[in-house]
Amino acid sequence: MNDTATLPGFADPVHDAQRAFRALLDALARPGRIHRLPPPLRAVPGLGPAAAALALTLVDFETPVWLAPSCAPAAGFLRFHCGCPIVTEPEQAAFAFACGFAELPVLERFALGTEEEPERAATLVVEAAALGEGRALRLRGPGIAGECRTHIGGLDDEWLAARAMLHALYPCGLDLFVTCAERVCGLPRTTRIEPPCAPAEA
């Protein structure tokens, strides 16, 4: 057990987890909407505040976790507070954490679920370079009235194309939480990310 294991979690474990859970549910129900999560009492090496809060809320002993290299220092914290196994192969993960989209392996390496059991798909948690600014994107799909515009830093055309290919596999696919500091937004597998939109006219 490394030093991160002894770091504290939420200041108010019950109420902070409840607040975070409601925010995360709404983030998936309303893709692109940015929420703020209650952070842990102290910074967790390898995870941003929102990513750590998400783990404290959603991860448990039944959810194997894969960590990208930059997130590896958080392994002790996750084992201690969440009781989750840390796996070495993306295929084994129920949750995967990365700092930046470039740290993710080929998306098809993660569990995509099956038509009979789509809930077995992995959930990705990616710390972005920016949230609410950066690359402009247009979102469409369930939970969005018409379209929604959002901004995420660090996305490139190759990753967006790979994600678009998975969209055609619905109900299989990957759900995504994008975090940045204490903020998070959800991009479930049902959300279509369309080409970057033009800036809105003044």
From TrEMBL:
It holds the Pfam family PhnH. InterPro entries: PhnH-like_sp (IPR038058), Phosphonate_metab_PhnH (IPR008772). This is Phosphonate C-P lyase system protein PhnH. Keywords: Lyase. It comes from Pseudothauera nasutitermitis. It comes from the Bacteria. SUPFAM superfamilies: PhnH-like. One of its GO terms (molecular function) is lyase activity. One of its GO terms (biological process) is organic phosphonate metabolic process. The keyword Lyase applies.
